Amino acid sequence: MADVQAANILNTPREERFDRLTDLAKEIFGVNMALITIVDSDRQWFKSACGLDGVSETPRDAGFCAHAIFEPEGMIIPDATKDPRFADNPFVTGAFGLRFYAGVPLRGPSGQGIGAFCLVDQQPHEFGPQQLSILKKLAALVQSEVERRDV
């Protein structure tokens, strides 16, 4: 969690530069939500949450991004109801009804995963290599903005 603290972004106000990127991703991929999450010791905190109003964080133990930060190439879940890791997750089985997740890790100063740039939907989606490439490029823009915050 040292990298999360070193990134100096946790619990900061929303910023238009991040909201523009989540809004763009939501539009490009045709999903319900695009999020920039920071994964703390016990929660996922949303720096930007396009399509998810009134929620600023979720518990880490139920969060998908807490898994995605350990996947260097990203984590794609076309249908969470069919993925044994997540089929019984409360975000899948509960009222939220999460089905699709695609997330690319964001890195802190020493290279540890501190969060994710992700897409979420309540409908299953196929997600191919070209789409993953675009998501990685958008995540690189998010990463640049995270690093430039104190400049």
Describe the structure.
This protein is of the alpha+beta class and 151 residues long. The chain has one domain (2-148): 2-Layer Sandwich (Beta-Lactamase), CATH 3.30.450. Helix content is 32%, strand content 25%. The chain is built from 5 helices and 6 strands; from the N terminus they run H-H-E-E-E-H-E-H-E-E-H. The chain has helices at residues 2-7, 16-29, 65-68, 90-93, 129-148; strands spanning 33-39, 43-50, 57-59, 75-77, 100-107, 113-121. It has a 6-stranded antiparallel sheet.
What's the architecture, going by CATH? Answer: 2-Layer Sandwich
Instruction: Specify the CATH class.
Output: Alpha Beta
Shape: globular
Structural class: alpha+beta
What is the count of β-strands? 6
Output the number of helix runs. Answer: 5
Beta-strand proportion: 25-35%
SSE string, helix = H, strand = E? HHEEEHEHEEH
What spatial order of strands do you see in the largest sheet? 3-2-1-6-5-4
Let me know the average pLDDT.
90
CATH domain fold name: Beta-Lactamase
Q: What's the structural domain tally?
A: 1
Poorly predicted runs: none
The CATH superfamily bears the name: GAF domain
The helix fraction, in percent, is 25-40%
Largest sheet: 6 strands, antiparallel
Termini separation (Å)?
22 Å
Overall radius of gyration:
14 Å
Task: Summarize the structure in short.
It contains 5 helices and 6 strands, in the order H-H-E-E-E-H-E-H-E-E-H. The chain has helices spanning 2-7, 16-29, 65-68, 90-93, 129-148, and strands at 33-39, 43-50, 57-59, 75-77, 100-107, 113-121. A hairpin with a 5-residue loop joins strand 5 (100-107) and strand 6 (113-121).
